């Protein structure tokens, strides 16, 4: 289906058509003309263009800011533009909207979901809370706005342990939705009264214990970087703690920490356990280091739905707008603000 807008094309002299295909909008190449047009349209809309680390390299390169979801949400809140274009998945754009209710937040393709966020619905959480009425609910940021609205404290992978440790030891804790991060938190805090939802990110499947061990053994001089921000590598975080790879080789890092470590590492080669999009920023930060994915199939198809065609469509047509009901946003904002107040919720770009 062609969905070409009848508004002026402006891509140099080249007319473009984009098409809706199973993996998202397609039909536009990320040429220099495309990048110039994206920047022109963003300025014309008075929009700030944000891209998550797991976006396609061309989307990262054209964005005003690249980072993890929390850093981007903070940048969104501080931006002086009327509009935020969030190149990432839907729950991230919702978080930006929660923190910037007065701005228009657009995502280039609203179908860019997240298997981890989808693993618990608001109704399922209501039912779980009814079983444990006195429990404190801790949710990883990979959740919908509605689930955040039913949450006491949100957390990132960087501060999940601190968040749970800050809760009265006699209180039950409901931890959701990521079972690997939950298991890591349970091990680190030694708490028995933490109940863990059995959710996971399907990109995890590509980063398992056997793969980690085999890669570490076949690259004995390489460092191992784990960046569990998005949920795709929380299994690696858990497995590293279980001793699948030698402790001294493992560096568990936030985005900023990972980029600093990339510039400072003495290793010639670094194995990276996370979604493969992160390799682009690492290779730019330290071109002399050979960065290899622990599993090069660990690619999130939702992230990759934000295509050059989708971004052009978004900028030309002002779609798709992200809406969060004001009462849900107000409750969700409290849980996100508590997250920001505890420990180190993660670094910026
Ligand atoms: S990598 Fe996993 S956790 Fe991250 S957006 Fe994709 S499905 Fe969700």
From TrEMBL:
Name of the protein described by the UniProt record: Quinolinate synthase
Organism: Gordonia soli NBRC 108243
Keyword 4Fe-4S carried by entry: yes
Record-linked InterPro entries: NadA, NadA_sf, Quinolinate_synth_type2
Binding site for [4Fe-4S] cluster: 114, 201, 300
Pathway in which this enzyme or protein is active: Cofactor biosynthesis; NAD(+) biosynthesis; quinolinate from iminoaspartate: step 1/1
Designated gene of the protein: nadA
HAMAP family named among the record's database cross-references: NadA_type2
Family of the protein in this entry: Belongs to the quinolinate synthase family. Type 2 subfamily.
Keywords recorded for this protein, A-Z: 4Fe-4S, Cytoplasm, Iron, Iron-sulfur, Metal-binding, Pyridine nucleotide biosynthesis, Transferase
Record NCBIfam families: nadA, PRK09375.1-2, PRK09375.1-4
Enzyme Commission number(s) of this protein: 2.5.1.72
Cofactor(s) recorded in Swiss-Prot or TrEMBL: [4Fe-4S] cluster
PANTHER family: QUINOLINATE SYNTHASE, CHLOROPLASTIC, QUINOLINATE SYNTHETASE A
Cell compartment(s), UniProt: Cytoplasm
Cofactor binding comment, as recorded: Binds 1 [4Fe-4S] cluster per subunit.
């Amino acid at each position: 289906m062609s969905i070409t807008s009848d508004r002026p094309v402006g891509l140099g002299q080249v007319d473009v058509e984009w098409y809706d295909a199973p993996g998202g909008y397609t039909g536009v190449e990320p040429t220099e003309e495309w990048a110039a047009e994206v920047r022109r349209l963003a300025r014309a809309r008075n929009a700030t263009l944000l891209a998550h680390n797991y976006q396609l390299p061309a989307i990262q390169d054209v964005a005003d800011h690249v980072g993890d979801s929390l850093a981007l949400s903070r940048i969104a809140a501080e931006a002086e533009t009327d509009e935020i274009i969030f190149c990432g998945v839907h729950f991230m754009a919702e978080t930006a909207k929660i923190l910037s209710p007065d701005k228009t937040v657009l995502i280039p393709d609203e179908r860019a979901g997240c298997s981890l966020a989808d693993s618990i619905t608001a109704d399922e959480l209501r039912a779980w809370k009814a079983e444990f009425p006195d429990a404190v609910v801790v949710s990883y940021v990979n959740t919908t706005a509605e689930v955040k609205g039913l949450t006491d404290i949100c957390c990132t992978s960087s501060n999940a342990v601190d968040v749970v440790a800050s809760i009265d030891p006699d209180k039950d804790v409901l931890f959701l939705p990521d079972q690997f991060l939950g298991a890591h938190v349970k091990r680190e805090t030694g708490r028995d009264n933490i109940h863990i939802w059995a959710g996971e990110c399907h990109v995890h499947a590509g980063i398992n214990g056997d793969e980690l061990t085999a890669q570490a053994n076949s690259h004995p001089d390489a460092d191992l970087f784990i960046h569990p921000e998005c949920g795709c590598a929380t299994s690696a975080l858990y497995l590293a703690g279980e001793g699948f790879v030698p402790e001294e080789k493992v560096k568990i890092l936030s985005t900023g920490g990972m980029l600093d470590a990339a510039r400072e590492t003495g290793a010639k080669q670094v194995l990276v356990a996370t979604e493969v999009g992160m390799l682009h920023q690492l290779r730019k930060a330290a071109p002399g280091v050979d960065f290899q994915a622990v599993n090069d199939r660990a690619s999130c198809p939702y992230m990759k739905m934000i295509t050059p065609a989708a971004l052009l469509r978004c900028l030309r047509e002002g779609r798709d707008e992200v809406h969060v009901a004001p009462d849900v946003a107000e409750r969700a904002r409290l849980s996100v603000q508590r997250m920001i107040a505890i420990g180190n919720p993660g670094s910026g770009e």
